[in-house]
């Protein structure tokens, strides 16, 4: 079946969906995106993702040419047209066509694309991380700038890890595509500053985990290595146990009970959607 993509207000076969090379996303990597999933053709946490999408656009000085209801209507049309029940939908807003390849001179271009997505519960699938000293530009914006993360892929493969963990001046931040949490004796902590506050991160902040307080507070690499458990959170991963960082085990080096309970509750929230 042909896959369809929106380019602005045009619904086109994927093979016909194109942008001019003068777009600032091509010329300078200027643009932003958001990503949410569908389960059984139903968008999950859509309002949260669209709120962040409009916030990112405002922070980058780009105007979305469609109202919230118009955008929701386009998403519904795309879902019906493609009929991919379990999927990931990416909204991309580019810098628009530029006369000099640097200055914003034209309206932003909107792309909406949909691809199949396997929904997994990763509670028992531990992942190993590699730390890297780095702070993203405009951390509160979900920009398309993934230069550092892509550049490090070769080093990740050579180190046998599945993801990077950014830290800056010993303060733990985030991963390129996920937020990061640690579990102490009585707290579940995630960084407060200089990160992108993900939608799943926000849902976890609202959970009631017996025996634990969920809080946002900056913590150090030393705190990480003293933790009982650690995990990543994102739209595609939900909560994904981290079993080692830089070759050092976290806790007993196995997925733990706290992340399993968090995933149980997250999947419950997703079912309500």
Please work out how many helical segments DSSP would assign. Answer: 8
The figure for the number of domains is: 2
Low-confidence segments = none
Remind me, CATH topology of the largest domain?
Answer: D-amino Acid Aminotransferase, Chain A, domain 2
Do you know the CATH architecture of the largest domain?
Answer: Alpha-Beta Barrel
| Class inferred from helices and paired strands | alpha+beta
Question: CATH homologous superfamily of the largest domain - what is it?
Answer: D-amino Acid Aminotransferase, subunit A, domain 2
Please tell me what the overall shape is.
globular
Mean pLDDT: 96
Count of individual beta strands: 15
Please bin the fraction of helical residues.
25-40%
Whole-angstrom Rg: 19 Å
In short:
This protein has 273 residues and is an alpha+beta fold. Helices cover 27% and strands 29% of the residues.
Describe this structure in words.
With 273 residues, the protein is an alpha+beta fold. It folds into two domains: 4-116, Aminotransferase class 4, branched-chain amino acid transferase, N-terminal domain (D-amino Acid Aminotransferase, Chain A, domain 1), CATH 3.30.470; 127-272, D-amino Acid Aminotransferase, Chain A, domain 2. It is 27% helix and 29% strand. The chain contains eight helices and 15 strands. The protein has helices at 24-27, 46-59, 68-82, 147-151, 153-159, 199-205, 221-225, 257-272, and strands spanning 4-7, 10-13, 31-39, 42-43, 87-94, 110-116, 127-133, 163-168, 171-172, 179-183, 187-190, 213-216, 229-234, 238-245, 248-249. The strands form two sheets. Strands 7, 8, 9, 10, 11, 12, 13, 14 and 15 form a nine-stranded mixed sheet that branches. A six-stranded antiparallel sheet has the order 2-1-6-5-3-4. A hairpin with a 2-residue loop joins strand 3 and strand 4 (42-43). The longest helix is centred in the last third of the chain and has 16 residues, at 257-272. The protein is globular and about 55 Å long. The model has no long low-confidence stretch (mean pLDDT 96).
């Amino acid at each position: 079946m042909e896959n369809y993509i929106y380019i602005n207000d045009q619904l086109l076969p994927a093979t016909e969906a194109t942008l001019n090379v003068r777009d600032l996303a091509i010329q300078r990597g200027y643009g932003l995106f958001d990503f949410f999933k569908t389960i059984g053709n139903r968008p999950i946490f859509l309002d949260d993702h669209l709120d962040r999408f409009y916030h990112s656009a405002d922070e980058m000085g780009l105007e979305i040419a469609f109202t919230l209801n118009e955008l929701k209507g386009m998403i519904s049309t795309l879902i019906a047209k493609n009929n991919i029940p379990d999927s990931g939908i990416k909204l991309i807003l580019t810098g628009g066509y530029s006369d000099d390849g640097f200055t914003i001179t034209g309206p932003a271009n909107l792309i909406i694309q949909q691809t199949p997505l396997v929904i997994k519960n990763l509670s028992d699938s531990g992942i190993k991380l590699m730390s890297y000293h780095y702070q993203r530009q405009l951390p509160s914006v979900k920009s398309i700038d993934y230069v550092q993360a892509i550049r490090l892929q070769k080093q990740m493969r050579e180190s046998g890890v599945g993801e990077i963990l950014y830290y800056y001046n010993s303060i733990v931040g985030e991963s390129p595509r996920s937020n990061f949490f640690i579990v102490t004796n009585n707290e579940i902590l995630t960084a407060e500053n200089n990160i992108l506050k993900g939608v799943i991160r926000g849902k976890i902040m609202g959970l009631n985990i017996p025996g634990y307080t969920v809080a946002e507070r900056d913590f150090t690499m030393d705190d990480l290595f003293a933790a009982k458990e650690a995990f990543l959170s994102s739209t595609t991963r939900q909560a994904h146990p981290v079993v080692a960082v830089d070759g050092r085990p976290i806790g007993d080096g196995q997925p733990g009970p706290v992340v399993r309970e968090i995933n149980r509750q997250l999947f419950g929230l997703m079912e309500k959607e």
